[in-house]
Amino acid sequence: MKRLLFLLIPFAATAQFKPIEYVNPLMGTDSKMELSNGNTYPAIGLPWGMNLWTPQTNVMGDGWAYQYNADQLRGFKQTHQPSPWMNDYGQFAIMPGSGKVVFDQNERASWFSHKSEVSKPNYYSVYLADCDVTTEITPTERAAVFRFTFPKNDSSFIVIDALDRGSYVKVFPKERKIIGYTKRYSRGKLTNFKNYFVIYLDRDIAFYSVASDGKLIGKQEESASNHSGVVVGFKTKKGEQVQLKVASSFISQEQAEWNLQREVGAKDFNRIRTAAEEQWNKTLGKIEVSGGTEEQMRTFYSCLYRTLFFPNKLYEIDSSGKEVHWSPYNGKVLPGKMFGGTGFWDTFRALYPLLNLVYPEINKEMQEGLVNDYLEGGFLPEWSSPGFADIMIGNNSASIVSDAYIKGLRGYDIEKLYEALLHGANNEGPVNAVGREGVEYYNRLGYVPYDVKINENAARTLEYAYDDFAIYQLAKALERPQEEIDLYAKRCQNYRNLFDPSTGMMRGKNTDGAFQSPFNPFKWGDAFTEGNSWHYTWSVFHDVQGLIDLMGGKERFVTKLDSVFSLPPVYDDSYYGGMIHEIKEMQIANMGQYAHGNQPIQHMIYLYNYAGDCKKTQYWVREVLNRLYKPTPDGYCGDEDNGQTSAWYVFSALGFYPVCPATDEYILGAPLFKKAIIHLSQGKQVVLNAPQNSVQNKYISSVKMNSKDYSKLFLKHSELLRGAVLDFDMSPTPALDRKLDDGDFPYSFSREKRPAK
């Protein structure tokens, strides 16, 4: 009875816990094109907010906006950038100065030091040495408030840089107001794209000068050019503070004004900062961990922070309270929700499953947005930034849609989304990365051939097969016609067509059925995507038992898994004509062929469980948690990728991982903390207790669920949602000779009992 009462304690009882204090937004910022330690930037914003803000060290337009090893800042940029490889859209910058009035980004750049920099999710502050100005920023979803502390100077000023590729500004001196827009974007072909902004100052504008084509042209009130901007200035006393309020809209200037009025209004800097802190603590506090080291706590919450930005809201609330959005697909302003800025190739694996478990309400909104994506674009996006981006492979929207529904999300048009999945699975899209490139070959031959000039063909085949499984799962849940269910059940077995018994690995195959030759399992790219056969052979998320059987049984399967770590980090980069950063990140990690810095192999450690050798899962999970993540600027071992690599850490630190989204299961690893509490919707909790956990005690001796012995190597999502207490007995040595029944093993399609035809 006491345990039941504990499960029902409301989250408010732990409201004093402030996880925001553990977050380091600078984790992963010590990166460059040649080597990624995260490729992140310090994101100042709210969870899933439409806009983020970041200090900019590199030139405007450079995807590597903020690099930790830089020593100058050029501005503070409103950003929607999910990744440096995707670059940004709708960005503009604000920068204070004093003395000689300058607009050019290099002339206005100022030296700074991390010693005088404060970076938190809800607040950023830095001292700009060259102009003797301290800048502070605090955000809302579509707006922000700046506070500048100026020196004594007759010529203190603020630069508003609307950037190049088409922009506009207008200053209203008597109203202390600036409006404008930027047309800048990086991906796709956008129609009627503008990011409108409005800015208000809390003091009179004494002088101003607009910029046209990147040059100041004097006291005119507006400028429309390739590169427009404005400088507004005033006389200040030492320590005098000037507050700036800014909001934006993809819809109109009037909507930008409304966004500012609705989200900021008369509130001052401190009120916005406090509200943002409360929202972050509430969102991060959905998971409470304790009993780890300070470093582990900081790493956990820094990773959780990174999972809470993308996809970001593209919709806005109009003056009548209705949700509206500018459509990146047709350029129209339409009703309803819209999200953007994520690549499903990365995020189907762990980010979306994390949302479905911990933040289902926001993913319900995202599913509503996907309906609008399909209605307006004719396909579901696979990489949205903000519309269709032609990058990466797969048709993993099938996983995003199916996992949400199978995990219990409801209240949106799932029939329309299922229609979208069928359409995407059987057609090529408007760009190669949408729909399925090579679909005619895949549906006819059961694979995308190597010799038909479709790159990364083996990777496409493996991902299409998993995506067909996701469609199969959703088709069953929606009680679709049996013929349709059977079709996707058959197609999800297409991975078998690329398995080469002579090497025990996945391999490209030609149209005539012969395997591509010569075959080098260490060759990156070519038949695979940002990886090699050692990484992609394990991409049978839905039928690991089928893969075990192909390899000749559990013993051989485990030996093959072991080889990933025992092999040297050799590589063939000839397809790329040189080393790509993902290869270098694998090479320096000192884990053989295991390339955790990229997504294809991140689930592989958990596959030991399918062969009953769970001690190796427990060992290698702890190794990755301890060795490849730190709450520091070099804290990741590759691209963080829109929350995916962080979601791996969050799940793995809790003690389980979603190897196969679109099923009801998580595969057990071993918890990192002595205690964790997941605060679910409807007041339920999942409590994970491991009081003996330590550096030495990394193996599970036994597990109890709700006080009963638990022998399964997986957890069921549906059982966790009812509330659960898991007690782990941890040990320094593995539990040997553990007897496992057939029902203790995780789901595999080959083990599923299906109705006889």
From TrEMBL:
Domain of life: Bacteria
UniProt-listed SUPFAM superfamilies: Six-hairpin glycosidases (SSF48208)
GO molecular function terms noted in the UniProt entry: carbohydrate binding; peptide-N4-(N-acetyl-beta-glucosaminyl)asparagine amidase activity
The keyword Hydrolase is annotated on this UniProt entry: yes
Start and end residues of each stretch annotated as Disordered: 737-757
Gene3D superfamilies (alphabetical): 2.70.98.10, alpha-1,2-mannosidase (1.20.1050.60), alpha-1,2-mannosidases domains (1.20.1610.10), GH92 mannosidase domain (3.30.2080.10)
Coiled coil segments of this chain: none
Pfam families named in the record: Glyco_hydro_92 (PF07971), Glyco_hydro_92N (PF17678)
Keywords: Calcium, Hydrolase
One cellular-component annotation, GO: cytosol
Cofactor: Ca(2+)
Assembly and interaction partners: Monomer.
Protein name per the record: Glycoside hydrolase family 92 protein
Species of the source: Fluviicola chungangensis
